[in-house]
Design brief:
The complex is a heterodimer of chains A (112) and B (113). Chain A is 0% helix and 54% strand. Chain A has no helices and 11 strands. In chain B, 38% of the residues are buried. In chain B, strands 2, 4, 5, 6, 9, 10 and 11 form a 7-stranded mixed β-sheet that branches. The chains are: A mainly beta (112), B mainly beta (113).
Chain lengths: 112, 113
């Protein structure tokens, strides 16, 4: 049973436009949601997080939106740059469990 | 500040052998997490250690085990290796505050032949 789902395996966007990556979850006990970026042969790099008590968090070009009623979150990257091309993982945490549960990732390609 | 370091970078083992992977967390981080990323799959949670104790375990067989040492470094042991154990094994550390995420190492690529 997959608790965190990223239904789009890949996304292609033109440089300068907005990239929107989506994530759905099933566990209403999750209290933090995080986005990670991963390049080949490297470990994932933390990008941005959001607490379940908020609906939006911004950090520079990255904004995460949380819709608890729909159990859905999204990561917006504006403007997209070729260096953003990577695999993006959505992850969620249930405080008492300690570990993060990851989706399968979405490969973003930003074309010049 | 040194990041999370993992060794070895690559490891080739024969089916049935044992593999030992090592992880040094960021200084001051007491929690260490192990994840497996098999080809085409996402990150699957293996083990969580905090203050020397195993706190949680993912859905993996008992031949996946580990420990955390007094200096908070950690070891992952995989016994009776199977071909499907071939994967990237990632270690992460944190202070235990999920809002700031974990810091991952670059991983150990384990190949079982």
């Amino acid at each position: 049973d997959q608790q965190v789902k990223q239904n789009s395996p890949s996304l292609s966007v033109q440089e300068g436009r907005i990239s929107i990556l989506n994530c759905d979850y099933t566990n209403s006990m999750f209290d933090y949601f995080l986005w990670y970026k991963k390049y080949p042969a490297e470990g994932p790099t933390f990008l941005i997080s959001i607490s379940s008590i908020k609906d939006k968090n911004e950090d520079g070009r990255f904004t995460v939106f949380l819709n608890k009623s729909a159990k859905h979150l999204s990561l917006h990257i504006v403007p997209s740059q070729p260096g953003d091309s990577a695999v993006y993982f959505c992850a969620a945490s249930e405080g008492s469990q300690g570990n993060l549960i990851f989706g399968k990732g979405t490969k973003l390609s930003v074309k010049p | 500040e040194a990041g999370v370091t993992q060794s070895p970078t690559h490891l080739i083992k024969t089916r049935g052998q044992q593999a030992t992977l090592r992880c040094s967390p960021i200084s001051g981080h007491t929690s260490v997490y192990w994840y497996q990323q098999a080809l085409g799959l996402g990150l699957q949670f293996l083990l969580w250690y905090d203050e020397g104790e195993e706190r949680n375990r993912g859905n993996f067989p008992p031949r996946f085990s580990g420990r955390q040492f007094p200096n908070y470094s950690s070891e992952l042991n995989v016994n009776a290796l199977e071909l499907e154990d071939s994967a990237l094994y990632l270690c992460a550390s944190s202070l235990g505050d999920p809002e700031n995420g974990y810091t991952f190492g670059s991983g150990t690529r384990l190949t079982v032949v």
